[in-house]
What we know:
This protein has helices spanning 18-28, 62-88, 100-122, 131-151, 157-164, 168-178, 185-207, 211-244, 249-270, 273-283, 287-312, 314-335, 342-360, and one strand at residues 10-13. By secondary structure, it is mainly alpha-helical. Helix 3 (100-122) packs antiparallel against helix 9 and helix 6 (168-178) crosses helix 8. The protein is globular. The two termini are 25 Å apart.
Amino acid sequence: MARLENGGIGDGTQETGKSDVVRGALKSHASDAAFQTKSGAGESAAAVPKAKTERNHPVGSTPKLLFCAVGTFISFMVFGIFQERITRGIYGKSDRFTYTASMVFIQCVINAIFAKLVIHFTREPLDTTPRSMYGLCSLSYLGAMMSSNQALQYVSYPTQVLGKSCKPIPVMIFGVLFAHRRYSVRKYLFTLMIVLGVAVFFYENGKAHTKDEKKEIGFGEGLLLFSLAMDGVTGTIQERMRHSHRTRPNAMMMWMNIFSSLVLLAVISVTGEIFEVMAFIRTYPYVIEHLLTFALCSAVGQYFIFLTVADFGPLPCSIITTTRKFFQILVSVFFFSNPMSSIGWFATVLVFLGLTLDTVFK
C-alpha cells in the first residue's frame, strides 16, 4: 500500500509530497457536489491539475470529520496489525512468511480493483496522463513498497513506521536538487527535529542487540532509506504529471497498481516464488485471509483519506494521518509486545512533534 501512509500503499501504501497529494485531490473534486469521496494510490497518491478556485475552509460537518478520522484510524490500525502479523509472525512451529513480492502483488491487485470500482461508480473525469508515465512511476512506487515491507523482516514495526514517517526529508532533498525549491528556516528546523528523533531512536534501538543482530538491523534500516528515496523519486514524477497532464487520483491508483501487478507477476513467476507461496498457503490456508484483509484495509484507508481531503481540506487530513502513525506504534508496542525504552519514546515524540509542526505551519 501505496502509498500510496505508498503508501502505500502503503504505508502500502505506500506517501509522495503530502501537500501535492491533498491539494490535487481537493481540486479534482471541488466541482463534484454529488459525490466528493475519492480513493488514491496511497498517501503517495497523485496530485491533479490546479483548478481556478480552491476551498479555503472546511465544508463538512463535525460528525462526518469524526467518521473519516475513525475510518482512517480503524482501517490502518487493522492494516498495521495484519502487516506485522504476516511479516513478523510465526506460522506453525517455526515457519515465517517471507514472500514479500507475493504479498505486495496481492496488495496491488486489490488496490487496482478497488480504484476501478471507485472510478466506475463515481464517474471520475477523463485522465489524460500517458500510460508510459504511469509505467515509469510504478517502478519507483513498487520499489518503495517492496523495500518497506521487506524491511520488516529485519526491524521492528515501530522502527518501520517511524522510518517511513520521515518523508519530508527526501521530499525536501529532491525538491532542492531537482525542482530548485527554496524552503523557510522553519521548515529546516522541523525537518532537523525529525532527523534527530530518528537518529536517536535508531541508535537506542541498536544498543540492545548483539553484533550479528546489528548487521541485520543495519540492512533493514538501509531498506527503509531506499524506500524513502523511492518515495522522493515517485513524488518528482508525479509533480511533473500534475503540471503537464490532467492526472486523476483514482486513475493513477488503478494504472500504477496495474503496472506494478504485471511486474510483480513476472518476478514471482520467473523466480518461482509463486509456487513457493502457493505451497505455503496450502500448508497454512488462513494466511490468505490475513493477506486479503491487509490489502483491503489499505485500499479502504485511502478512501477515507481522500474523503477527508474532499470535504475538509489538506490540514485535517495531514493531522489525522500523522496521528494515526503514532497510534500504530502504540498498538504495535502493546499488541505485539515490542519493547520501547524511555529514550525511544522521547525520540518518537520528537519525530511526531516535528511532523505535526511541519503540517500545521506548512
